Amino acid sequence: MKKNENQNNLSHEHKCDAPGCHEPGTCRAPKDKSLTEYFFFCPKHAREYNEKWDYYQGMSEAEIEANLREDVGWHRPTWSFSANKPSLKDPFNLQKELGINIGKVKNKKIIDPEILKAMKILGIQEPLVKEKIKEKYRELAKKYHPDINTENKAEDIFKKISTAYKLLLKTVK
Asked: Which of 39, 48, 131, 167 has the fewest CB atoms in 10 Å of its CB?
């Protein structure tokens, strides 16, 4: 109810700023680009004013482009982000305390989850070397080959080992 009272007070406080109009000025419209001073219009004249008003009037294309670029950051100063320069500072030594090193994160490789799974199956860690992969495959194949190992799960494990081996070999090549 207070909101309606405020709106009614606003309409009684201002007359429409359009020449010759005696309607209450319920709509606020900016006078200039500073957006600090406003006209008060009735809805009809506010619509007319808004159709004609152009924020970028009198600005060159370069000024408009610069204004739009500044608008992306809400006209606050911004700095370019560079992945090559570690610009993160740690004044409270939280990295050391928590055991993390932000500077080394950029050098970390992103490995495909399937390759990680295959590495886990064969029990191999990076760096991937063809000889290491073959050696581990032979060791596991002897252990889980269905002709040698008669357990029910041995055949399934052997299939997983073979698939992982083939995937890792393709990755190394």
From this structure: 131
